[in-house]
Design brief:
heterodimer, A: mainly alpha, two-stranded antiparallel sheet, 12 helices, 77% helix, B: mainly alpha, 13 helices
């Protein structure tokens, strides 16, 4: 085979890959590198001055901003509460759906799947309709049950709760679908052996089901955490910003509003990178914990 | 209190029945909770506009399409629904088609060919897939600004395609892995080229998986808000952006708002109704097999 032929043989697979690489490279990687460059400079899109090198000033200024810190705390809280809620509810539903001999499983599963497929901003609109102080069904039902209706949208102390409710409503089914598939693919033998040995249902769950699902649980939690940290659509559509008195300010909204108001590319790029760093750090911490848990259970 | 064998058997049966009753109750309640907001919104959209926001809420009413008519004629609320709807349809469809083609090529090569950076490319794909759009707004704005493509449909199509390709490649690769190579080898011995093999043999065989991938690839642009918000303004906004006109008016016009919401969620609901089997298989496929 000539050199040319051998070269063609080596490069042939990459050719198939070229369109995908070109698109991802040009639209994702290249702008990200560009943003990194900008994050160390000051450049306003509305002023005629060219970009000016400022070192880490953008990063420092962001960390010093009390609104950023509030957004950070809110995001962490939101992630924690909503992912925990989604996990426990989703897992319970998956366990119920997995019961042998359950009728209408497809019907239940299909109705559970609906929320996660819907447009997030439209989900927020639906909930605004339900939670409105006047004409909202939720407050009406509360009054009917002799409870004092709450200002879901206007009360600063309630705004994050409202966000959590909507987030959990939309995303629980993601957990359910994935864990149900995992449950249904678990092998039968360990359970039969356990039954023969006289193990109870709870013991079987703890020692067979959970370890068997561990990798899937890790994947599901990871996905949800990453998306919850960057939640934007639902919150912005609920409040048009950071909520009453910025009580519902989260990292995604902070980034967007900062850019929209200041048109400062440098500062906004720095915020994007901080957001990316937070996400990567959380992911890494997560994977380490998951990996360590794995070796413990196998040991 | 000791029970005899008969009593023990009865109490076991009772507990078992009870647990089944509870199971169905919980599942049914959950179904109601998950479906009710959607149902309520659709109902609101077919009430007479004045009733839509009545306090206390109205449960019995004669349905009417007045809110939809108001939307279209722009009588009560002035929003350009045709423009946004058209943009959504065009952008979502175009991005889906392009993404599927690009991803099919990439997925096939990842599945069938052995080449040096295969592992790291796979990893990059999974890593990239995990970035929700909001993190991309600054980089993408810079890119589209420099290309003078702000507020255009191609800007959206390009962005969504870049976001969709990693996920689509990952899904399709899993499905292609399941097809035995022998079919392709037989075809190639008979003289087919690789690309003929891909399009004429492999793709038809993974049709369910392809359909599932297509659904998710379509829904990403259809449901996206953050990117469309930053990249578009007057010419190319998509359906989700219509809520910007709602955010300012504080819920006075719930009828037309509910109508827009209902229209926007039609594709997702249709996909759930008609493609459930594909969807569930597609969603769980990658996760379960890793």
């Amino acid at each position: 085979m000539s050199i040319l032929q051998r070269a063609a043989r080596t490069f042939y697979p990459y050719l198939w890959f070229l369109p995908a690489l070109a698109v991802i490279g040009y639209v994702m990687f290249y702008p990200w590198i560009w943003s990194l460059w900008f994050s160390f400079r000051s450049w306003s899109l509305v002023l005629p001055d060219p970009p000016r090198f400022v070192g880490v000033e953008n990063y420092v200024r962001t960390f010093a901003d009390p609104l950023f810190r509030k957004a950070f705390v809110n995001s962490i809280n939101l992630t924690f509460v909503s992912v925990a809620g989604e996990f426990f509810l989703g897992f319970s539903l998956a366990l119920l759906l997995n019961r042998r001999g359950l009728r209408a499983r497809k019907f239940f599963l299909s109705s559970f799947v609906v929320p996660m497929m819907l447009t997030p901003v439209m989900v927020s609109i639906m909930w605004r309709l339900l939670l409105a102080s006047e004409g909202g069904l939720v407050n009406y039902l509360m009054r009917v049950m002799s409870l004092t209706p709450l200002q879901w949208m206007a009360d600063p102390s309630l705004s994050m709760t409202t966000v959590c409710i909507v987030e959990i409503w939309q995303n629980t089914s993601f957990v359910t679908v994935i864990l149900l598939a995992g449950l249904q693919s678990l092998p039968e033998e360990p359970y039969e052996a356990a039954r023969v040995d006289g193990a109870s249902g709870t013991q079987a769950f703890w020692y067979i089901t959970l370890p068997g699902l561990r990798p899937l649980i890790a994947v599901v939690l990871l996905f949800r955490v990453m998306f919850a940290l960057r939640a934007f659509d639902i919150i912005y559509a609920l409040f048009g910003g950071g909520g009453p008195g910025n009580s519902a300010m989260v990292l995604g909204v902070y980034l967007y509003e900062h850019f929209r108001v200041s048109w400062q590319v440098g500062e906004s790029a720095a915020i994007s990178y901080i957001l990316l760093a937070i996400t990567i750090l959380t992911t890494v911490m997560f994977l380490i914990k998951a990996r360590r848990g794995e070796s413990v259970s196998e040991g | 209190m000791l029970l005899d064998a008969g009593e023990r058997e009865l109490s076991k049966q009772f507990l078992s029945r009870l647990s089944w009753v509870l199971t169905y109750v919980v599942l049914s309640l959950s179904a109601v909770v998950f479906l009710f907001p959607v149902v309520w919104t659709v109902l609101t959209s077919i009430k007479r506009p004045a009733l839509a926001f009545a306090d206390p809420p109205v449960f019995l009413f004669t349905p009417t399409l007045q809110s939809y008519r108001d939307l279209v004629t722009g009588r009560v609320i002035v929003i350009n629904i045709w423009r946004n709807a058209l943009n959504s349809v065009v952008v979502s469809t175009a991005s889906t088609l392009i993404s599927l083609v690009v991803a099919a090529l990439a997925a096939y090569s990842l599945s069938r060919f052995r080449f040096r950076f295969r592992g790291s490319i796979s990893f990059t794909i999974i890593a990239v897939r995990m970035l929700p759009p909001i993190g991309m707004i600054i980089p993408l704005y810079l890119l589209m600004n420099s290309l003078d493509l702000l507020d255009t449909r191609p800007a959206l199509i390009l962005s969504y395609t870049a976001l969709n390709v990693p996920f689509a490649t990952w899904m399709l690769r899993g499905f292609i892995d399941d097809i035995p190579i022998s079919l392709e080898e037989a075809a190639m011995i008979d003289g087919s080229s690789r690309s003929q093999v891909l399009w004429r043999i492999v793709m038809p065989l993974i049709l369910p998986g392809l359909a599932a991938t297509a659904v998710f690839t379509f829904l990403l642009p259809w449901n996206d808000f953050a990117l469309a918000l930053i990249l578009t303004n007057k010419v190319a906004p998509t359906l989700p952006l219509l809520i910007m006109s709602f955010l300012t008016s504080e819920g006075v016009l719930w009828g037309p708002i509910a109508a827009v919401t209902t229209l926007t969620i039609i594709p997702p609901i249709m996909f759930v109704l008609f493609a459930q089997k594909f969807l569930i298989r597609g969603l769980t496929f990658g996760a379960v097999k890793g």
